Amino acid sequence: MANELRPCPCDIGDRFDYGGRGQEVQVEHIKAYICKPPASTDKAVIVIHDIFGWQLPNTRYMVDMLTANGYIAICPDFFVGQEAWKPSNDWASFEDWRKTRDAGKTDKEIDVTLKYLREQCGAKKIGVIGFCWGGAAVQHLMLKNPHLKAGVSLYGVIRFFEDRSSLLHPTFFIFAEKDEHVPLEQVTLLKQKLKENCKVDYEVKIYPGQTHGFVHRKREDINPQDKPYIEEGRKDMISWLNKYL
């Protein structure tokens, strides 16, 4: 069966039954999900979704978690109306699908989101986090966008941008020890290149026993053996943002 060819295991994990506390808004040419804390703040985080798109309940859960920690958080539709991947799709067609959704071509959407956050939300210090496909997009943005203050890349697909490591901003990389999609050899190479070329603060952390997507694709209550690492990953993500925003 063609579905046995699975180039991305993002469908492994728990699909949250979660409605979200924020709202959907139109930001120029894209839709976005945004959540704001009750107290006013000038700190914001852009969340870049994985291949399952901006409406995935798991990702909205993470947006709301950021807001619970005091940030304006927004997840734009980086696929710009194109259909997100579905677990029921034929994985044999995945590479063709992915080629039409380049993690290195998110700049236009980031620019309009930055403008929206500054002009409509009063944000001055803005960071970015992303999962899987979105984690690769974070690495791309940390290499080139001068307006973002910090980034957290969660199990980002290193091979998309493995030849570049001169980060502009403090970046935290979260990886899973047993991630078949992002092998530890690639993580080791990334660490080596960052050590050689990176002039800003960075950290690369591997969480033992974990698989791809563990921070946002597993539930603590039904994955008790993974609960400490899920919570640690989320806490580390928030701590990095708190430090640099």
TrEMBL record:
InterPro entries assigned to the protein according to its UniProt record, in alphabetical order: AB_hydrolase_fold, CMBL, Dienelactn_hydro
Gene3D superfamilies reported in the protein's UniProt record: alpha/beta hydrolase
Subcellular location: Cytoplasm, Cytosol
Domain Dienelactone hydrolase per the UniProt entry, residue ranges: 30-245
The UniProt record lists the keyword Ribonucleoprotein: no
GO molecular function: hydrolase activity
Keywords noted in UniProt: Cytoplasm
Keyword check for Cytoplasm: yes
GO cellular component: cytosol
Name by which UniProt lists this protein: Carboxymethylenebutenolidase homolog
Species per Swiss-Prot/TrEMBL record: Galbula dea
Record gene name: Cmbl_1
